[in-house]
Amino acid sequence: MSPASIALNRFGYGLSAKDAAVGDPRAFLLCQFDAFDPSPPAIAARLDTRANTGEMLELLRRLRQDTRAMTAMEQAGTPAMAEGMTRQEARAVALDGLPPEYREQLVEARRVLADDIAVRVNTVLTSPAPMVERLVHFWSNHFSVSVGKPGTQFEAGPHEFTAIRPHVLGRFSDMLKAAVLHPAMQIYLDQFQSIGPNAPFAQRRARRGGDQQRPRGLNENLAREVLELHTLGVDGGYSQTDVTELARALTGWTVPGIGRVGRFAEDQPSGAAFVALVHEPGARQVLGRSYPAGEAKQALAILDDLAAHPATARHIATKFARHFAGDTPPPALVARLEADFLRSDGDLASLTRTLIEAPEAWTPGPVKFRTPFEWLIAALRLTGTTTLPPQRIVGALTELGQVPWRAPSPAGYDDLAASWAGPDALIRRVELAERIARNAPQDGVIARAEAAFPGALGEATITQLKRAESGQQALALLLVSPEMMRR
Amino acid sequence: MTAGFDRRSLLAGSLLGAGSLALPRLAFAQGTGSRNLLFVLLRGAADGMAMLAPVGDPGFEALRAATLADYENAPRIGSFFAVHPALAEIAKSAAAGEALFVHAAATAYRERSHFDGQNLLESGGTAPYTTKDGWLNRLAGLMNEGAPAPLRALAIAPAVPLALRGDAPVSNYAPSALPQASEDLLARVSLLYGADGELGPLWARALETRAMAADDGLTNLRDASAAGELAASLMRGEGGARIGMIELGGWDTHANQRGAFARSARQLDALLAAYKAGMGAGWANTVVVVATEFGRTARLNGTGGTDHGTASAALVMGGAVRGGRVIADWPGLADGKLYEGRDLAPTIALESVIAGAVAEHLRLDPKLAMARLFPGRGDAPLSGIIRA
Which ranges of the sequence are coiled-coil (chain B) (predicted)? Predict the structure, then answer.
């Protein structure tokens, strides 16, 4: 790959029809820092869904004993109907077995989710800062939430829009606090119903004999994933005691406007809330450091220290390097990024600049197999698509196997070729490419190929593009060419 | 292992710890005929104590009070264990002598990360991320040694899972709602990828698998019963895949476990019932191994769920299985018996279960299978799982 092709494809989402030529590759990337808009109007318009979440969680609480209804709820988290499925069929599949009074809410959840996904995709199709959009999607995947968990559907989009986007060129500690405490994450990892065993609320309920059906204790799911996935990494040197202590410190952090304690909630930044009544009292000990009793501030102080921990620097540097510079990232690059993270106190703009300046990020051979999402975005940009309706977008991503905010685990989608470069994946890309090519301008395909992969187009691809029987077929072949599959 | 009751009575017919009892008919890979192996991976740490509840253990009631009602009329295996009612078809297979559970089993992994736990179970390494290929792929490699052509190994999944990744050729397939690409485009893509060392072989296998699954009529894998049927259709008969793998999620039941576990269990039950029906006469020569990365805490947590634990249960099912029993060296649930004071303690190596079942079924030398699939383990492969 040429440096220009690397700037476009390895760092960005490929050439779009209206992009100018690359010029100086590093300057081309650095300019995008200023061109990036963290809150473009289409995204700013998507944030008013909080009331729905409260209703949804209350609905879930009431439905909990009804397994048929719960199954329907989980299917309702599937944002897409498959392409070719009619709206009525999709609705019937999702809503079968659900009490009729809840159907409207679920139809609404699916609509909101599909619209949020469409805003994410359409934003990047025309973005003047595709590299920074890649950072948004990288960090969103690092702090992965999944709409497979009932109740998160209204929050997954806002999680990325408000807890990730504003911080991708800011401080890691700010992103950590915003992403971990956002309602989407609290619902996804069960934090919102975790209660300190010695908190006033738990004590009072125990004295009254309590309602055995209601959740009434500590849940350590979020605490564990914060340590293992978001900060230190699995080998970061924490113990089960650290997990439990962090879980205790996190009690009280919840989703605003829900449950019996909702009226005691104090609103916090990033859409979270804190209820002192359910917070475990007392000092906490995490990774050998002591944190005095401090209600909401206690967890914030621990998160700040975790963000600055050397193990976190190592973990983040490794993942960042793997995303841009190869499945087995060059150790020298990891070391540079790690040092930068520590020196700059987790300044993510500085981390990104260090990546752009590092020679290891510019090795000529392609270093990554494009994930389905990366491939689809690059394909749509290359064909000059500037906007697509939500159902088309969600349908395509569903078939490719990578719907945003629907990763199979809190670790997010894998960032390794072996996870994506399977036989079935190739067939799907070919099928979709033929479809995309049918609806796109089909002239000048070879010139477009040369512009998209400047100085980097292989002989085999040029030969097959020239032999294609039509512009449409040439475009379909370009979309699945080896140059498009890897970056 | 000194439980305060007669745990040996649980082991009816099993040959626990009898790795030295060589099975005389076993030799190296030869004449596997049409024997099939399906590996079902339950992602998310399935709760073995919910799957196969130790209702005869005096400690169970206190740990799981809120779930006791589920097992009142549940099918039993012996007097000690009750099968979760959502696993009705599996329980029927057990009663028919075609399914067995192994309880209190765990891999060598002793931490509590899903991702590391799954990595270890799938790679078969001794520590997470140290082994790059998967044990199921190495099994295919072992079977291919000296064979005229590599066997078909297939994941029924949108991506090849780690367990099947490696040097032996494998494919994957999942139903798609996309319209099929034109024959002309497919042929031209073959030319486009012809000289590409990575895409060329992947593409060749993609076309082959697609041809096998030509008209499944499905658009996705969401219906567990349809997925089981699809797996059978891709594995039965002479041209079918010998080794298959399918994944089921939804087992990470941190909160409100009763409903969530029952839903996932019903999926597993429907999948296996449909697979069994779909295999038809081939079921007699089929073994299904169902395993999960680790178990869950013995005690229900504050939100009616369970957290990441250690030992769980595994299921071995199929016409070739000497079933109808539970293999366990039951560790007990009394205070002081739980692993780290919170989890069901592991007493059987899950790797031994897998290697033993696979080797006996596919007529491989168990020691060789253990060494190749799970190198570096001291455990002997479990024997006596498959009918002689």
Answer: none
